[in-house]
Amino acid sequence: MFARRGGACVARFDAVEAKVLHEVLSEVVAVLSDGFDRGDPVVERLFPDIYPTDPVGSADLRQYIEGDLKTAKLDQAWVVLNALPRGGGKVRLDEAQAEAWLRALTDARLALGLRLDVRDDTDLQEELDEAVLADPTSPRVEHLSVYAFLTLLQESLVEALMGHPS
Fold this sequence. Notes:
The protein has helices spanning 15-33, 41-46, 55-83, 95-116, 124-134, 139-161; strands at 3-5, 8-13, 89-93. The protein is mainly alpha-helical. It has a three-stranded antiparallel sheet with strand order 1-2-3.
């Protein structure tokens, strides 16, 4: 996980962790790039209506800001993908890169959490335990484990940015 080293946030990823991060962020890029379907619940979660009770006002505002938001989200995902060694290794982030990683990890967690119907991180371990008991080889166990990994990674990056030891 991330730790503060001078002015940088540093982490070492093994090959499996790097592969998981690459796959998750590549999926976010695909959702944002491939047709950008506003009917997709993940797109709706990543780009919620600004005025939920005013669909016309939300649509008007969306036409002005959605392109820039989408570009920013794609750029942030690419910051992660470009910094991440494919076979694992060390990542060293300056403050701007670390903040891009935080936003990209948030998007990845929102997308995966929605697909998994995770409503509250405080119940994550309980959900994971229940899924393991039901079927330890299920895809849900794997996906909840990835979600937990993203959560821990994001928490360690926040602590590193704040200058706290991890």
